[in-house]
Amino acid sequence: xxxxxxxxxxxxxxxxxxxxxxxxxxxxxxxxxxxxxxxxxxxxxxxxxxxxxxxxxxxxxxxxxxxxxxxxxxxxxxxxxxxxxxxxxxxxxxxxxxxxxxxxxxxxxxxxxxxxxxxxxxxxxxxxxxxxxxxxxxxxxxxxxxxxxxxxxxxxxxxxxxxxxxxxxxxxxxxxxxxxxxxxxxxxxxxxxxxxxxxxxxxxxxxxxxxxxxx
Length: 215
Prior knowledge:
Mean pLDDT: 79
Helix content: 40-55%
Number of helices: 5
Structural class: alpha+beta
Number of strands: 5
Low-confidence stretches: 14-27, 137-144
Largest sheet: 5 strands, antiparallel
Strand content: 5-15%
Shape: globular
Number of domains: 1
């Protein structure tokens, strides 16, 4: 073999290896980031169940009475914010209106959707938290008592993608339990919803039971 031929083959081999490394590194980094986000969402959910345990069970009747006396959804939301503020250390100022959330299929969340939230708040770890009063008629309550409210969490705050199922997750808070969104869906429905053609809402539950971004 001539020296020039050897150099060409050697160069081609190096280029192939380099191209493979370039392809693998972004994929590996994405997987690490996504796994991190899922872990943080699971931590959020644990904090939610703790909050429900401490507050909603100990002061259940008082809270339900306050909610029933509230004359408007806005008044109920104000009560909810004050209730959860110590547990998630919400800032007193709201997230700028330029912050927008979209579904996993890349469509914007319409204002008519039950998952549309008007105002968001920063938590002390820069997560973005959404709170919404949810009438029982809007989300199936699976035999639970009153549906009190819904909370959403953008795990990495203002950083993109600000998308349901990728960095945005949520849960329903009842007077007797907490449920991640999507718990009423079958496994196949969860997989479909947690795909590029789905809305990503059900990922909140899907990732809690072991599903992941690669499925």
